[in-house]
Structure formats: C-alpha cells, structure tokens
Amino acid sequence: MTKSQRKLWIGLFVMALLTPFGIILPHIFNAGAAWGEWGVDKLEQLLGYTPQGLKKLSDLWKAPVPNYNLGGRDASTTLQLISYLASGVLGVAAVGLVVYLITRFMTKNDK
Amino acid sequence: MHIPDGYLGPQTYAPLFGVSVAFWSVALKRWKKELSTKHIPYLAMAAAFSFLIMMFNIPIPGGTTGHAVGGGIIAILLGPWAAVIAVSVVLIIQAVVFGDGGITAIGANCFNMAVAMPFVSYWVFKLVSGESKSPRRLYTAAFLSGHIGLTMSAILTGIEFGIQPLIAQGADGRPLYAPYPLSIAVPAMALEHMLLFSVVEGLITVLLLKYFLKHESDLVYALRAREE
Fold it and tell me: How many domains are contained in chain A?
C-alpha cells in the first residue's frame, strides 16, 4: 500500500466515525425525510390517501438493517447513532468486498 | 435521491433496469480493457467513499434532507465507466441490506446516480477544463462537474416521479404510484439540489481533486485521457 493510499483509507475511516452527524444534523435543524422518500404513513398524512400501487410495492422487501438502524423503530437515540456508525463500517466492508470480487473475477481471464 | 419501492410503476422501473444493465455490461468490459490491477484499491475506496458520503444527510432547516453522491469526482479520477461500477455497487448494497432505495427501483436509482451523474460530471469537467493546466480552471471545472452532475441526477429523479401520475391511475382517478406531478416534482428536486446539496457535491469534488493533483496526479483519469 502506498503512503497516499494509507492516507486515503485513514480519511475513509475518519469519515465512517463521523457518520452519526448524518443523523444529528437533520435532527438539530428539524429536517425530515428526503423529498420523495417518505414512508407510507407519512405519505398518507401528506395526501390524505395512500396510492394503491405504491402501498402494494412498498413492503416488497424486508431489508436486514432497515434505515441503517439495528434497533427498530423504537430504538433509543444512542442505539440509532451506534447502528448508523456500524452500518457505515458494514457498508464499507460490503462494497469493498463486492468490488474486490467483481474485479478479481474480471481479471481471471486476463493473461 | 434513493427512490423507494412503490414510487415508480413497472412501466418506469422495468425499462430503467434494462438501461442500467446495458451500462453495467459495457462498464465491466471497459474496466477489463482500460484499468489495471493497480486501480482495484482505488475502485474499492471510491465505492467506500460514495457509500459514506451518502450517509451524511444534509438538512434543509425545517424541510427535507439530501446528500452528495461522489459520482463526479470518481468519474474524474477513475473515468465515468469505473464510476458506473463503483456507485452501482453502493446503490445495490444500500437497497438490499439497508432498505435505502427500493429493490424495484435499483435500475432507476443506478441510472440516475451511477450512470447519468458520472457521465454528465465527466463531460462538464472536460468541457470546462479544456486543455488547461491552470489550477483555477481545473477547480472551477471540478466544482461545476460535481454541481451539475448531481443536479442532473436530481432532475431525472424528479422527472421519473413526475410522470407517474400521468401513466398510472387507479379506478378512482388517483395516482397509483408517486403522486406529485412534474410541475411539483421536478422543481422540488432541482431546487433543493442546486441551492444546497449540489454545492456540497461541488466542494467535495474540488477538495478531492486538489488532494489527488498534489499527491497522485498521474492517477487522474480525466487528465490522462487528454494525452491519448
């Protein structure tokens, strides 16, 4: 690993440690979900009805760690922040592994 | 900008899956041809960076949140096709593991953030920087590259949302999927990005380009590609 690569990995590590700010800042500034990413309940509140097709598709998939939160909807703030950080680390590991596998698989036929 | 399941009907998400799959297959071929084993760690770092930067939700006080994507700087550093792979991997993991973005919308989300963004960003960077080596010109190009790339991606997302009420209504005439028309969805997505999230994206693009020009200038794909 070159010196610059080491620096970059350290930079990514620091970023991962700082990810809880991605929850804290919106909380402080009282900002909600991203535009167009409201949950079904919230959407019903906004519209006064639930689009039927949307409702049908919305619970198609149960993600293992929904919303980067390990504790479920009623998780304490601390648990949410820790989950978020852990999700960051887990995510980095997962994308790193997939990229490694893809590129390894691709260079296999080379030379 | 991660479209959840249910916001797009099959008439929209299915074709976009096709488009993204086509780009993935070309991207993998290009990767094989253009990039060497030396680039593998950078592709992994690029994906890690994109994953993390999307976790930093930026609030609009009292309103919505948004985030940068990193698609522009990855395209400048590793080329737009490598960026397609890096950001697509991120979006697929986010959808499958974390429920961020729908499973049915993977094609659409990849098209918006992992295909359109890197290419738009890359073209803007090439167009604005020209053959110049002046740092000011390069940084201006980098800022605009990130800014315009993310904004375009947001506009495409807004269009995909906005056409839903036109193509699918229930028996009662109400929209079946994303409920807001183009006249609301596009300006909402475009403005919040142009004014805030894309500015952050632009700044990140500049800062990282600055780092790479200083420490690893021979890596930068957009500058290498000039000489060929």
Answer: 1
Could you give the ipTM of this predicted complex? Answer: 0.94
Q: Percent of chain A scored above 70 by pLDDT? A: 95
Question: How do beta strands B65-66 and B58-59 pair?
Answer: antiparallel
- Other CB atoms within a 10 A radius of the CB of residue B34 amount to 14
Contact A57 B98 (CB under 8 A): no
Positions in chain B whose pLDDT score sits under 70:
227-228
What residue spans of A1-111 are helical by DSSP H?
A: 3-18, 21-28, 40-47, 52-58, 77-107
Q: Does B77 touch chain A (CB under 8 A)?
A: no
With CB atoms and an 8 Å threshold, state whether B65 touches A26: yes
Residue A84: give the domain boundaries. 3-107
> For testing the chain B interface, which of A38, A73, A83, A99 should be mutated: the one with the most B CBs within 10 Å?
A99
Asked if residue B137 lies in contact with residue B129, where contact means CB atoms within 8 angstroms, the answer is: yes
- Residues in chain A within 8 Å Cβ distance of B177: 51, 53-54, 57
Sorted by where each starts, the structural domains of chain B and their CATH numbers stand as 10-227 (1.10.1760.20)
**A35 vs B62, B177, B189: nearest CB:** B189
The pLDDT of residue A3: 92
Q: Do A22 and B43 touch (CB under 8 A)?
A: no
| Strand, coil or helix: B124 | helix
State the average pLDDT for chain A. 91
pLDDT tens across A22-61, in order? 999 999 999 989 999 999 999 999 999 999 999 999 999 9
- A15 contact B CB<8A: yes
| CA–CA separation, A98 and A92 (whole Å) | 10
